[in-house]
Write a structure and sequence with these properties.
heterodimer; A: about 120 residues; mainly alpha; Cytochrome Bc1 Complex, Chain D, domain 2; about 55% helix; B: about 375 residues; mainly beta; Methylamine Dehydrogenase, Chain H; Thrombin, subunit H; four-stranded antiparallel sheet
Chain lengths: ~120, ~375
């Protein structure tokens, strides 16, 4: 029998990479294939959220702050799925929170494309 | 511009000498997306001027010179900008690091210190010239290079700050600017993310993100070292995702009581400062970001992180009850009281607006347009430690 709080401890001792892969797996399993594109109005909200709210930690120019830099060249080195998982599930052990209470998977995918400079 | 200056800003220009201007009711509003400041006055709640060219102002803050004429603005891009409010212009600007988070002005007003993320450390500048006086890299005892957070001014031309990655508190003493000295306190806890210094300059409190609790250093008795208080302060077992880190600066005490925004909880913690124990929790509408006491200490104003960042709650301190919940706009980032507390100014980032509220009746009395406003800073801060 694993005590209820063991899960948290496990999470803390695992490396971020492992956690990310675990989260990724969950996202892949649960995600609907071909999630719908956010509406134009939602895209506007997301663009604002990225600059203003993500920008609070990552810098409004995405050069980093308390959070890592999110410049397009760095983002393009990372896979879409890993980035989507990081947005939705956060990075345990760091201040990066899971955004899935506020953002859908389609929202996260749109943000990843924006971070990579693939949409405007 | 010239006409505007003559209308009220310039000191002693022959052409408009009758319009001499003092600075005691002035303030600056950060327009974070445009690298611009709005200069405002709080007597009639109006905008006087705009000052542009300050770079990346996300999470910008500023301090005022002791004569309340100059502001020193700390930008995210590492820019340190000196602004003359009588002339509504930039006097000097230096790019002193790649990425910074805030700063402080020394007790005697001669030095301004900046906390940097990249490269991590503290740089200290002369307030007259912005010449570099000291450069202190933040390398922890374990060799970890750290971001610097929670930089505060302390009595005796001391700056107190915390090292985020290394988990240390440092006291940088610059009484003699030719020989700055650093006293280091290691193992204070994981990931200090922000700090405050009490109004009397005695206690430096660093909030921990990586574990529960607050690290406290008594600056009157530094030999006693850092001790841990409020072990329950923090995220706890059922904490919610933290969409915006709470801010500790702006904190104040009412009698024996201090109020702290809880991390990852819809609560404000009430702390008895005589023994630093938690004596209560106030349930609020979201995760608090700022919990600020109105001057006089009778009411507490609280704003919130996403998704409740359109609300502000006003709490009656004697009863600890929520008096009123207002919705002053979208994305409420900051609150600033006039020096004696009859008005509070609120910035609504996503409504592109600053609103002014009467604190007795909790009603809106004025609105000013502002592009993506964040911090609001009134000159009375010049005479308060830790602001």
């Amino acid at each position: 029998m694993i005590p209820a709080n063991a899960r948290t401890d496990l999470h803390k001792t695992r490396s971020p990479v492992f956690s990310r892969q675990l989260s990724l797996l969950l996202v892949l399993v649960t995600a609907p294939v071909g999630a719908a594109e956010p509406s134009p109005e939602r895209q506007k909200q997301l663009g604002n959220l990225l600059v203003q709210d993500c920008g609070s930690c990552h810098g409004m120019t995405m050069k980093g702050g308390l959070g890592s830099p999110l410049l397009p060249a760095l983002m393009r080195d990372l896979g879409d799925e890993a980035l989507v998982a990081t947005i939705l599930d956060g990075r345990p052990g760091t201040p990066m929170p899971p955004w899935k209470l506020i953002l859908s998977e389609a929202d996260a995918r749109w943000l990843v494309r924006r971070l990579k400079g693939e949409n405007r | 511009m010239k006409r505007l200056l003559c209308a009220g800003l310039m000191l002693g220009l022959a052409a408009c000498a009758p319009n001499w201007r003092a600075t005691g009711d002035l303030g600056l509003v950060v327009e974070r997306a445009d690298g611009r400041l709005q200069m405002v006055e709080t007597t009639h709640s109006t905008r006087l001027a705009q000052i542009s060219g300050l770079g990346d102002l996300s999470h910008a803050s500023l301090v005022f010179s002791r004569d309340e004429r100059f502001a020193f603005v700390f930008g995210r891009d590492g820019g340190l900008t000196k602004v003359d409010m009588l002339q509504a212009r930039i006097v000097k600007r230096v790019l002193q690091a790649g990425n910074s988070i805030g700063g402080a002005i020394s007790q005697d007003g001669s030095l301004v210190a900046v906390a940097n993320y990249t490269p991590g450390g503290v740089k200290v500048f002369d307030t007259d010239t912005l010449d570099l006086v000291a450069d202190i890299p933040a390398m922890g005892a374990d060799g970890t290079a750290s971001k610097v957070v929670g930089l505060e001014d302390a009595p005796g031309n001391v700056f107190a700050f915390s090292l985020y990655e290394a988990g240390e508190i440092w006291l940088l003493d610059i009484k003699d600017r030719t020989r700055p000295s650093v006293r280091k306190f290691a193992d204070i806890g994981k990931q200090p993310y922000d700090a405050l210094i009490t109004e009397d300059g005695r206690y430096y409190l660093a909030g921990l993100f990586g574990e529960d609790g607050i690290a406290m250093l008594d600056l009157w008795n530094p030999d006693k070292g850092v001790r841990r208080i409020l072990d329950h302060y923090g995220r706890g077992q059922e904490a919610l995702p933290v969409y915006k880190m709470p801010h500790l600066e702006g904190w104040a005490a009412s009698g024996n009581l201090a109020f702290l925004p809880a991390i990852g909880r819809h609560e404000v913690l009430v702390v008895d400062m005589t023994n630093w124990r938690e004596v209560g929790r106030i349930q609020v509408a979201g995760q608090p970001v700022f919990a600020m006491l109105q001057p006089g200490g009778r009411r507490l104003w609280v704003n919130f992180a996403l998704p409740d960042n359109g609300k502000v709650q006003v709490i009656d301190v004697p009863s600890l009850n929520v008096l009123k919940t207002i919705e002053p706009g979208q994305g409420i980032l900051h609150m600033e009281f006039t020096p004696r507390g009859e008005r509070v100014w609120l910035s609504a980032r996503d409504s592109d607006q600053v609103s002014v509220w009467d604190t007795a009746s909790i009603t809106k009395v004025a609105e000013l347009p502002a592009m993506k406003p964040s911090g609001i800073f009134f000159t009375a801060r010049a005479h308060r430690m830790g602001l």
